[in-house]
Amino acid sequence: MEKKKIVILFTSDVHGKISPYNSQDKSYDGKGYAKVSSVINTVRQEEENVIVIENGDMLQGTPLSHYMLAEKEDSSQIHPVISACNTIQYDAAVIGNHEFNYGREKLEKAVNDSNFPWLSANIVKKGTTEPYFGTPYMIKNFDGLTVGILGLTTKNIPVWEPDRHIDRFDFLDPVETAKTWISHLKDEKQVDAVVIAYHGGFESDPVTGQYLAAKNGENQGNDLLASLPELDVLITGHQHLVYHAVTESGTAVIQSGTKGEFVGRIDLDFEKKQKEDPYTLADRETSLIPVKDAKADEKILSDIKEIENEVDDWLDETLTTVSDPSTMQIEDPLEDVWTKEHPMIEWVNKTFLKITGAEMASTAFFLTQGMTFGNTLTRRDIHAFYPFANTLVVMEATGEEIQASLEFSASFLTLDADGRPAVSESWKYPRLLSYNYDMWEGIQYTVNLRKPKGERITSLTFNGEALAPNKKYRVATSSYRASGTGGYDMFGEDKIIKEFPFGVTEMLIEELENTEEFVPTTNQNWKVLM
Question: Could you tell me which residue, 47 or 215, shows the higher pLDDT?
């Protein structure tokens, strides 16, 4: 009996995180590629046959990444994430949805600078079925044992990205695409094991059936499992879940969180009785390796030191002074932001209104923890407060749709047994979805938490009059929200009437650069009754 073990390691949704220090406040968080590198190197020393995959959303997500993609004058320099992944020696990367945030040219440069192929079978040249980046899959050969890895990406990218970023691509259905390519790998290439690395997630837990996400085509992991019973491994991402299991049908399924907090691991044990026999997959096991106790890779840290210092100087530049920071401190988001107006939320919305000329605006507080403000506002503060690469849009929504969106937002909150405000359980799983709780400006409304969900908006007016159900109003908000994602299916990209081609964060920074002094104020246009 001949036996052989293959170990697959992967990361997903690292979002530009290299250093184990948080770029927002420089605190140590023990995550990122420098730590990932040490974990992978350790496994490579322990195991003979190792495959290493990056499963997407690697380029975007930190101020350093943003600086390299949008601010750095020397555009020839290799992105530090690509340099780090070259050092780690990934075997392949899968394209994530956030890879498109800075446009096609930036993505193409990242792909060209990589020492590894980028896989995505369902991102094709417009009007064709030809994979845009040329490599739908890769095959790793270990002395006659072959493993085929197919790359797939969520098809919902056109929902989030402006046309100018994706006008040369089509995004095919991952499930239908997988059927074609898996047959090719099994029948023509005769691989011994089939792996899908999918930058997308699950609508329900593949083992328990517990609800995870809406059925809107964004996360088709369950459909992949149902359509491809021959699948040996399904690597997933996009949702930032910490999850691993082996399904009843024997497919290893796994997702490794975000920011490089874990390295996902799948152990595949093969055997064959005779030398001329094909290998049979006898067992599979999934696990997640935490990186927090690993020593950071000094080469990776050294490689980014110069650009880190450059970015730190850029982030620490003062944009404006603050008249009274005492009114801005966020100790507990539930008490200081989500149940009462906060000056920064109001300022963001008013800036949206000023830039767009819309009638009303909405935004969210994206952090799940507090935030401290000083006597000045810096670029670092704004990148921390608004960390996503959204663009600003104006959409037309009816009074009825606006009311429905407010009711959905209001379901984020509830009252505990003592009558105190709390976050609803349904918003805590699979992770805290507070970035989908919106606060509005330009309208006046009241949220009564003692009312049933769906009936909590007890007062809603615009310029002193009730919103007309069928009248269309111009709303300034993020491209993400206007897309209808995150439970806001009353909206959608068909409602967008204007898009501003610059990131929200950059617009906010420019506004503060032209503000002599930031004066924290709130006008109490909304309130929460408990």
Answer: 47
